[in-house]
Amino acid sequence: MSTSLMVKKMKEAAEQKGYECNIEAVGAAYAKEKKGAIDVLMIGPQLRFSYEQLKKDFPEIPVILIDTIAYGKIDGKKVLEDAIKAMGAE
After folding, report:
1. Domain CATH for 81
2. How many domains does the chain have?
């Protein structure tokens, strides 16, 4: 539930910024199927155990852990900003 709320808040923040992007919450297996179409992979705090493996699975893109405080607050703006920064697209 919190992940779908985060996606919604991130989309709202992107719209407010006029930033065009596609934001999805997916499982690791689906992410692997989408390899090559993902610009940044963000991992929720509840899945931090998979972070190192996902970094190995996706060496060509930034793989970042979502800030625990931002996730807890459902701060879509902060998380979107972190994604943009990770991609070097500020």
Report:
1. 3.40.50.2300
2. 1
pTM of the entire structure? Answer: 0.89
Burial of 65 (0-12, 13-18, 19+ CB in 10 A): middle
Model pLDDT for residues 11-53, shown as the tens digit of each residue? 999 999 999 999 999 888 888 888 889 999 999 999 999 999 9
User: How many Cα atoms occupy the beta-carbon half-sphere of 13 within 13 Å?
Assistant: 18
> Alpha-carbon distance 77 to 14, whole Å?
8
Full domain range(s) for residue 69: 2-87
Please state the length of the chain: 90
C-beta of residue 66 within 8 angstroms of C-beta of residue 44: yes
